[in-house]
Design brief:
Radius of gyration: 25 Å
Largest sheet: none
Number of helices: 4
Number of strands: 0
Order of helices and strands: HHHH
Distance between the termini: 31 Å
């Protein structure tokens, strides 16, 4: 799973849902296998717990990425600024609107202004 290339909320949620569903199947099979083995195969147990640690680590990464992505979408307000097409007569109006809605807005972090 290439977590670096997943950036949209729907992609993260879809990955997380599929990942959890796959793990649920693995866990069900583990319980059946463990009942058959009756806990006598320590190598099997160790390997299962290694995979469980990987699952938890990836799940944590996906959840963290989801929270960070949701925060970005919720925290950055959508501001309507008219498009500046480069016209000399448009500049004063555009500059005033940009300055008041974005530049002087203390409710927006500098990174969000960019």
């Amino acid at each position: 799973m290439d977590l670096e290339n997943i950036s949209e909320i729907w992609q993260i949620e879809d990955c997380l849902q599929n990942f959890k569903a796959t793990w649920s199947t693995i866990e069900d099979l583990h319980i059946k296998t463990d009942n058959i083995l009756e806990g006598v195969d320590n190598n099997y147990e160790d390997e299962y717990f290694d995979y469980e640690k990987m699952y938890n680590s990836i799940k944590l990464q996906l959840n963290t990425k989801l929270i960070n992505t949701e925060h970005r979408y919720k925290a950055t307000p959508q501001l309507e600024v008219p498009l500046f097409t480069g016209g000399y007569t448009q500049w004063p109006t555009f500059f005033d609107l940009f300055t008041e809605t974005i530049h002087n807005n203390n409710g927006i972090a500098n990174a969000q202004k960019l």
